[in-house]
């Protein structure tokens, strides 16, 4: 198995890279999906979130109201750190199991773990390669405004709540420049696939 950790800030084009690698045959594990599973009704993580932030973060159906929780944590670094301390360990446990399952199913698999908060999670994963999708702050802000309809102030707040570009680049084995055209991003993803598909499996 060859394990790639793929990370990048919000609106960095990371998901585009992940989809391209999956099209080539990589096994894709999505940390955002796991983070939703980790806080489903009945999970210890959801109970801990309610204990910390109150029942106002619950939707009428008993699930997590992500918008309500986001309104609290994205403007409060202490609250965000408290949330991360609850969610990150739960997601790590799920991801470790999914990675192990993928390797058991196909020892020669290329597994891509799409993890936006790799720097913030501070968890040790046995990555063979860490890939960072990188676009400048102005480009990411523009994307959030144009593709998600996000107000400029909210876009800046979301970007500022994440790790800095310098922190992400410091852990990168490979940087994919996503500041340019879609074709350029896909070309770099294709080159990455050519590099890893012949790499020796662990």
UniProtKB/TrEMBL annotation:
Keywords in alphabetical order: ATP-binding, Coenzyme A biosynthesis, Cytoplasm, Kinase, Nucleotide-binding, Transferase
The protein's annotated pathway: Cofactor biosynthesis; coenzyme A biosynthesis; CoA from (R)-pantothenate: step 5/5
PANTHER family in UniProt: BIFUNCTIONAL COENZYME A SYNTHASE-RELATED, DEPHOSPHO-COA KINASE-RELATED
Gene Ontology molecular functions: ATP binding; dephospho-CoA kinase activity
Protein name: Dephospho-CoA kinase
Gene: coaE
Residues binding ATP: 11-16
Matches recorded under SUPFAM superfamilies: P-loop containing nucleoside triphosphate hydrolases
NCBIfam families associated with the record: dephospho-CoA kinase, PRK03333.1
Listed EC numbers: 2.7.1.24
Reaction equation(s) it catalyzes: 3'-dephospho-CoA + ATP = ADP + CoA + H(+)
Main location: cytoplasm
Similarity comment: Belongs to the CoaE family.
Compartment(s) of residence: Cytoplasm
Keyword Transferase: yes
GO CC entries: cytoplasm
């Amino acid at each position: 198995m060859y394990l790639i950790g793929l990370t990048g800030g919000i609106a960095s084009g990371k998901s585009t890279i992940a989809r391209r690698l999956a099209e080539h045959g990589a096994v894709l594990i999505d940390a955002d999906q796991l983070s939703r599973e980790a806080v489903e009704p009945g999970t210890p993580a959801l109970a801990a979130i309610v204990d910390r932030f109150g029942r106002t973060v619950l939707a009428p159906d008993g699930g997590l109201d992500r918008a309500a929780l986001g309104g609290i944590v994205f403007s409060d670094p202490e609250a965000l750190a408290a949330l991360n301390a609850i969610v990150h360990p739960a997601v790590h446990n799920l991801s470790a199991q999914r990675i192990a399952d993928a390797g058991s199913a196909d020892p020669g698999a290329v597994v891509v773990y799409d993890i936006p908060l790799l720097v913030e999670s501070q968890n040790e994963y046995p990555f063979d390669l860490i890939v960072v999708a990188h676009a400048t702050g102005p480009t990411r802000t523009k994307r959030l405004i144009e593709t998600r309809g996000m107000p400029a102030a909210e876009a800046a707040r979301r970007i500022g709540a994440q790790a800095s570009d310098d922190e992400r680049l410091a852990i990168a084995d490979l940087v994919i420049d996503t500041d340019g055209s879609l074709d350029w991003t896909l070309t770099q993803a294709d080159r990455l696939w050519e590099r890893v598909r012949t790499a020796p499996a662990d």
